[in-house]
Each structure stands twice: as C-alpha cells, then as structure tokens.
Write a sequence for this structure.
C-alpha cells in the first residue's frame, strides 16, 4: 500500500542505494473525489520521509480528472479546480528544500495536457502563482501550453524508435528535455478488469530493453532522465524488485548512475521490511530497526546489516 510507512521506507532506501536522485509523483489534486484524496494523503506520507532519506521530488499533475471534480460539484470549472490545486502545490510543496528546481523554479510535469489544451487556459491557471514553474508536458504536447511550457518529457510507447525520435527531433528545440528509460511495457487492464488492453507490448527481453533505453539516454547527453516507472505494475513498467526479475533492474540503474559501492545491500533493505512486518508489536525490535534505517540513510550499510542480524 502506497500509504504504508514500511513500504515507503523500503522503496526510498532501494532508490537511494540504486543512485536515484529523486521521484516524480503522479498526483490527482486536492479534491475529495474518487480516490484522489487518498493519493494526496499517500503522497504526503511519502514526502515526509523523502527528506529523511535524502531524496528530492516533484509533482506530475494529472489534468485529465478535472471534469470529474466539476461533475461532482466540487468546483465551478476545470480551470478553477486546477487553480486550487496549483495554489496548494505552491503553498505546500514548491518551497520544500528537496523539491526539484530547474532554472531556479520548481519543476512541474503534466501527464498531457488532456483537458486544459490551450495556452490561454494554462496562462489563466498559472496567473494565480507567485512565480511560474518550470513546466514540462508529455512529448509532442508542449504546443498545448504555448509559452507556459519550458519543455517536454519522454514516455513509453510501442517501441524504442519513439525515444530516438524524441532525442533527435524534439530535444534540440526544447529549453528543457527530460528523457525516459524503461524495462518494458505489458498492461494488465483486460485481465484486471480495468478496461480494454492497450494493444501493444514492449517485451522485457531479460533486461535488454532497459539496457537499450539507458544506452539511448546516455548517447542523447541528457541533463534529466526519468525511470519509467517505479511501481506501475498495471502496465508492467516496474523497476521495483519482484520475484520475477529480482533486483536486476535497480542493479542496472546503480551501474548506470555510477554508484561506486559494489556491496550488496538490496536484500538487506528487503530483510528490514520483512522484520518491520514480522516484529510489528515488538517495541525493542522496532527501535533497532529505526537505528538500522538511520545507518542505511547515513550510508553505513555494514552497521545496519549487523543490527538486522541481531534481531531474532
């Protein structure tokens, strides 16, 4: 569960030791419609621990849900709903010391635009802010935001040709271009009862797809690279360790990021999660686990491992 403190701790430590600098959080706004409020609450539990672990973050805003907010009677228009959400971000996230800044301004991504599709609408939405963010749309969509967009970010689609096109054709024209790397794509929508299958697959190919997308990113000489995605199991793009793939994907990220340590730490981070669950009511064990967490965070994994081994 994305709001489970033990899960958050586990995810962030795995990220830290694989050389990831921060996370981009898919965010549905502030309104109590469908599960958006829960997403916001989980996001804020995540943010609270990011600072402790030493990772940065930024928001990926979903504008596709805005009509749902209006239809639920929570806002008078899609732009007024977006203004409320942006004002909340500015007040609660943008000034955090570990909120990602590009060119001195908070980074804001949009998964689209899908509903707010004119520069005038985005100008209207951003007018309420003290300062405009460094705003990135999905690839090929920055025209919808006009001068409000500082650039675009790549995503996962059909095959790696689209990434190549982005690096060759889009990147030279953009002030800010964020690349993408992914292990594969295989959606679960039909099997899971979540709608029709997307209709195309990118095979994982035993890690070869991730190798290729990381290599494309390296050759493109990017300043910013997004790993797509940490835990979207519904689309089969997860870097999070699984029974199927083990730690292989985050090991590849670790190598790509140039992490010098050759020590194997990932299984110990998983062991800590298992002990958190197993020793749920044991105050002494939890205290030791808190100390192990502090050792992991301060890059003293040997001391953390020793403590974990003492917990019986």
């Amino acid at each position: 569960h994305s709001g489970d403190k033990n899960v958050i701790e586990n995810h962030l430590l795995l990220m830290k030791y694989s050389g990831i600098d921060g996370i981009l959080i898919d965010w549905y706004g502030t309104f109590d419609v469908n599960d958006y409020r829960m997403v916001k609450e989980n996001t804020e539990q995540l943010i609270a621990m990011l600072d402790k672990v030493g990772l940065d973050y930024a928001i990926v805003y979903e504008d596709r849900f805005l009509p749902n907010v209006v239809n639920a009677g929570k806002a008078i228009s899609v732009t007024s709903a977006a203004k409320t959400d942006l004002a909340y971000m500015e007040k609660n996230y943008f000034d955090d010391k570990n909120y990602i800044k590009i060119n001195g301004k908070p980074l804001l991504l949009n998964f689209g635009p899908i509903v707010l599709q004119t520069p005038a609408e985005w100008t209207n939405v951003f007018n309420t802010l003290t300062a405009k963010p460094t705003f990135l749309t999905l690839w090929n969509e920055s025209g919808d935001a006009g001068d409000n967009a500082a650039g675009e970010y790549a995503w996962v689609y059909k095959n790696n040709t689209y990434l190549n096109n982005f690096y060759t054709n889009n990147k030279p024209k953009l002030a800010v271009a964020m690349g993408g790397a992914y292990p594969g794509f295989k959606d679960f929508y039909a099997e899971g009862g979540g709608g029709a299958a997307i209709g195309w697959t990118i095979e994982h190919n035993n890690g070869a797809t991730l190798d290729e997308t990381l290599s494309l990113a390296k050759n493109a000489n990017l300043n910013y690279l997004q790993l797509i995605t940490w835990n979207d199991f519904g689309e089969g793009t997860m870097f999070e360790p699984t029974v199927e793939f083990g730690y292989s994907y985050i090991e590849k990220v670790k190598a790509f990021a140039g992490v010098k340590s050759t020590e194997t730490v990932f299984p110990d981070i998983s062991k800590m999660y298992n002990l958190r669950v197993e020793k749920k009511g044991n105050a002494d064990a939890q205290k030791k686990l808190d100390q192990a967490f502090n050792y992991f965070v301060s890059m003293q994994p040997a001391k953390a491992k020793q403590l974990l081994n003492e917990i019986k």
